């Protein structure tokens, strides 16, 4: 399901065409959020050093923010490990997070008075695409971010 203007059953993201991919199992409690951010930073450094893909500080910050938000949601709502995959290519970077909770996340309407639960709102602002795929166990959430600094108009 693609989360652009709601769940429309859009095409799921392809991992084809990516220059580099890294997979991580994130065990443990809340510390895995920081670990995931460090993995993302190292992955982006590898993109630059090994493949010459330049990522601005703003895009880098957005990728690390998306990693934090997706892993935080998985940590809050699912039991067990969280799997994270980072994929990069000329079209951008995919942040993929799998968890064991089958519940599909809901993007809530903006509400400045609400405390918390703004993660998907934030991700939709910085990502080009946001996909949710149900798995035999749990779900997989993919956020695709452009390497350019053109902001999402949504």
UniProtKB/TrEMBL annotation:
Keywords of the record: ATP-binding, Kinase, Nucleotide-binding, Serine/threonine-protein kinase, Transferase
Molecular-function GO term, any one: ATP binding
Span of domain Histidine kinase/HSP90-like ATPase: 53-144
Keyword Kinase attached: yes
Highest rank taxon of the organism: Bacteria
Coiled coil: none
SUPFAM superfamilies, A to Z: ATPase domain of HSP90 chaperone/DNA topoisomerase II/histidine kinase (SSF55874)
Name of the protein described by the UniProt record: ATP-binding protein
Species in which this protein is naturally found: Streptomyces cinereoruber
């Amino acid at each position: 399901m693609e989360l652009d203007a709601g769940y429309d059953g859009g095409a799921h993201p392809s991992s084809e065409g990516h220059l580099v991919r890294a997979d991580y199992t994130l065990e443990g409690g809340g510390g895995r959020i920081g670990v995931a951010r460090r993995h993302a930073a190292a992955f982006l450094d590898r993109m630059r050093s090994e493949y010459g893909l330049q990522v601005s500080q703003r895009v880098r910050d957005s990728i690390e923010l998306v990693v934090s938000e997706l892993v935080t949601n998985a940590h809050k709502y699912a039991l067990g490990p969280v799997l994270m995959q980072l994929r990069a290519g000329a079209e951008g970077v995919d942040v993929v997070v799998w968890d064991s909770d089958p519940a599909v996340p809901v993007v809530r309407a903006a509400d400045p008075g609400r405390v918390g639960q703004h993660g998907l709102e934030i991700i939709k602002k910085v990502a080009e695409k946001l996909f949710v795929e149900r798995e035999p166990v749990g779900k997989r959430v993919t956020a695709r971010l452009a390497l350019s600094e053109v902001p999402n108009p949504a």
